[in-house]
């Protein structure tokens, strides 16, 4: 089951469970579409993998399978994989 992280790791934009612009890599690193497609040019800065749209969990299942509350933000800044921030 996906963790559904609550924010973009790059710009800290809120990404609620129903966010249509949430993007994830295969490790569930989470970014908003603007950062993933713009600044990061489609490559995760953590693993170098690509992004896909994060699925939206049905609202009726959120109480049984809640999203994560832990916010992750890249302290060193956000830059494409292989480049320093």
Helix/strand layout:
Elements (H helix, E strand, L loop, with lengths): L21 E3 L5 E3 H7 L12 E2 L32
Antiparallel strand pairs: 1-2, 1-3
Description of the structure:
The chain is low in regular secondary structure. Helices cover 8% and strands 9% of the residues. The chain is built from 1 helix and 3 strands; from the N terminus they run ββαβ. It has one helix spanning 33-39; strands at 22-24, 30-32, 52-53. Strands 2-1-3 form a 3-stranded antiparallel β-sheet. The radius of gyration is 12 Å and the shape is globular. The termini are far apart.
Structural class by sheet pairing and helices: little secondary structure
Shape: globular
pLDDT below 50 for ≥5 consecutive residues: which ranges? Answer: none
How much helix is in the residues?
under 10%
Beta strand %: 5-15%
Work out the helix count. 1
Total strand segments: 3
Report the major sheet. 3 strands, antiparallel
Termini Cα gap? 31 Å
What would the average pLDDT be, to the nearest integer?
92
Write a compact overview of the structure shown.
With 85 residues, the protein is mostly loops. It is built from 1 helix and 3 strands. The radius of gyration is 12 Å and the shape is globular.
